[in-house]
UniProtKB/TrEMBL annotation, chain A:
It comes from the Bacteria. The lineage of its organism: Bacteria, Pseudomonadati, Pseudomonadota, Alphaproteobacteria, Rhodobacterales. GO terms for biological process: amino acid transport. GO terms for molecular function: transmembrane transporter activity. This is Amino acid/amide ABC transporter membrane protein 1, HAAT family. It is found in: Cell membrane.
UniProtKB/TrEMBL annotation, chain B:
It is found in: Cell membrane. Keywords: Cell membrane, Membrane, Transmembrane, Transmembrane helix. The keyword Transmembrane helix applies. The chain crosses the membrane at residues 9-29, 35-56, 63-81, 87-107, 114-137, 173-193, 223-248, 260-286, 298-318. It is a multi-pass membrane protein. The keyword Transmembrane helix applies. CDD domains: TM_PBP1_LivM_like (cd06581). GO terms for molecular function: branched-chain amino acid transmembrane transporter activity. One of its GO terms (cellular component) is plasma membrane. This is Amino acid/amide ABC transporter membrane protein 2, HAAT family.
From TrEMBL, chain C:
Keywords: ATP-binding, Nucleotide-binding, Transport. GO terms for cellular component: plasma membrane. Coiled coil: none annotated. This is Amino acid/amide ABC transporter ATP-binding protein 1, HAAT family. GO terms for molecular function: ATP binding; ATP hydrolysis activity. It comes from the Bacteria.
Amino acid sequence: MEQILANGVYLGSQYAMIALGLTLIFALMNVLNFAHGQMYVIGGFVTYTFYGQWGVPFVLALVMSCVTLAILGALIEKFLFAPVIKGSAREESTMLLAAGIAFFLDALILLVFGEKQRGVPKIVDGVFNYDFRLIMPYDRILICALAILSIVAFIGLMQYTKTGRALRALAQDRTAAQLMGVNVDRYSMIGFALGAMLAGLVGGLLVTITGVNLGMGGPTSIKAFMMVMIGGAGVISGAIWGGIILGFMEAIGLAVLSQYGDITYLLIFISLMIFLAIRPQGLMGKPWG
Amino acid sequence: MFGFSAKQLIGVAIFLFAIFVGVPLIIGVTGRWDFYFTLTSVALLAIASAGVWLTFYIGRINIGQGAFALIGAYVSAILVVKAGWSFWLSLPAAGVFAALVAVLIGLPILRLRGVYFAMITLVLTQVVTLTALALPITNGAKGISSIPLPSGVSLFGIPLIPDFGAMENTKLAFYYTACILMIVTYAALYRLVNSRLGHLCRSMQQNEELASSIGVNIAHIRIVIFAISSFFGGIGGAMFGSIAQSVYPSSFQVADSVNFMLNCFLGGLGYVFGPMLGTLVLYFGWDLLFELGKYQMLVYSIILIAVIRFLPNGLLSLRFGKGGDK
Amino acid sequence: MSALLQVRNVTKKYGGLTANNDISFDVAENEILSVIGPNGAGKSTLFKMISSFTPTTSGEILYRGERISNLKPHIVARKGIVRTFQETTIFKSMTVRESVVVAQHLRAKASLAGYFWGSKTAKEDVAAFGRYADELLEFLGMSGISNELASNLPQGNLRALGIAIGLATDPKVLLLDEPFAGMNHDETMRMVDLVRSVRDERGVTVMLVEHDMPAVMNISDRIVVLNFGEKIAQGTPSEIQNNEKVIEAYLGSADDEIGM
């Protein structure tokens, strides 16, 4: 039981960070970022390259992941999403663009980093063992702590800084934010960069535990979508709840259902469908339609 | 006839002539027999894409067609291999089964709109792939292979469909079969869109509240349309499995669902034949880029992004201009 | 006076908020009845309940003695109680005529399959819909714009289009949601005449929610006044104009009205 709880917290904290980035981009620009999983994978590969290949300190490698993804996110927003949003009659165009970008990033990862599974040396050795009821390697505990710290920092940023306030205003009502003097174009870019950066940060954190490979992008995006639907799209608290809930469901599923094969996700999906039938806006989302 | 104008009839005649006579002639002359497989795939993927297009016609972005294609492929394979059915019976059965699954899943999820429906259908694709890996009847990752070729069908001793297993060249037979299926699908789609059901769909696409205020039973129509759409997916998938003579959990996955959606959007959502064109261009484009080896995906995605960036309303919008319809 | 539509002790609560509290009134056949009240008085909620776009918390609404509350909107529409919306709710990429044609689908005699195969009944339906659409648009003075895309129409015409779509369903009761909002005096007067002719010439009972007091006083046979979710008065225009409670309600919330 303790083990399941601990695994749930660990998974949930990682997932929440992925969902936060996705939901931030969605809230700001109404864009469903299909490429989110690929951004996560790139973050993993950057940390792998700096920390695993070149021996740069882990924290610096993490920073490099963040910077790379922030720049990539900003460029994608400025040169692709912003013009397409302005020029297209249909808002669905952004979804296509996001899908195209996901393909593109996949191709890029394949060319630059190859298709092999990559891992890095452990950042800390040793295993925490409480009476064999709770076993957790120290590196997982550290990564989990770092993830929770990042989430707290992100919430702090959104709540107490000028940038955060501007982003929240933008998420709430684009036109009103513009009238209030928020530079909409600039903050859209900053928000997208921030969302991409979060994906990169999780990628960098998790590469120390699960490693990274090309094929992780798509499934990561899918998990992020599920979390966002559970919590409610475009709501920060929703993303965190969605992450925690999916993390726990997965932890419980793996522990309880493992002998029945891989049907955890089928069951999670069925529960999600039933849940959404009752509450289409998710846990924290505002009712719509 | 069927409300076609003379000009349209000529167009249809040219199209039919091209695919049934023109293509085999050109392939015979050039000796590019591999084009049969490419074009057969295009026809089958276009059937599944037609379903996605139809779901869009009620205002839902469907990124779950890969799931229904996979379901169709498995149902047909299981019926043929394990129950000894004729393929020609398993084909409609696959479509119907996919439609039934669509009804069950559609009841809760069709209430979702926009991005939410898109997300959940995408998740559905992944879940069906995972389920195919986990279930005993689908044989896990090993999938179902060496599916026998379609057998012959005869009625009162008159052969209607020849036995594919006894043929020297199944490529042409599969090509014709796929083309006929595609033409029937698009003819049905065209009629549906231009009939009362189509008009009601259009009213729902544009405003569900207003549609229900004029007495349209939107919940009912949504389910019917989603079922028809998934029927197309199931048929396309089943036929694909029969040609490949195998089905794996990876036969249709998330990327395929996304591609079905891209086919529709790039062909143009305002036009019934848009998804057919989109499938042809995307699939052929992908095939032509094969020469580029490891740069294939990179160039393909860059072209894709460029098209979306500069032609946001689809390829057919080039010809018809903005705001065109049908 | 026979009651066509009866609102019986209807209450609507959203969470802790009471939007409508114990509202009762009747609508007689062939009358024009307006529901007025300051912003937030619960007029729109009441409309949504009558058209079953939202369920009641308690109480019921009867049409010819038959309950129509807490059903589905399309079922209520099929019984002949049809609402219109404010101008943004239209079929954007249909022409005026197409919108009016599609709104007639309830009268279709042929089945959906009949339409698919192009049966004789279906063809007759299509022809009849077209004829009726032309007739209706002429009646509403919209023949000139029948081939315009709805999204290209100016505001005033959108309101008329909404009414045309509602009328095309051949309703017994038409619920109009702020038909005069945003119109100048001349436009309002034309719309008043139009609504009156809908009642007089087509025998449609009209119920409307409106802010424009002069227009309401001009057009209504009777008026129901809501304030803070409660019914505070009902009666003829002259009775309402002299009602203490009504005057007080409107003076007390004069600030709200500026916002409209």
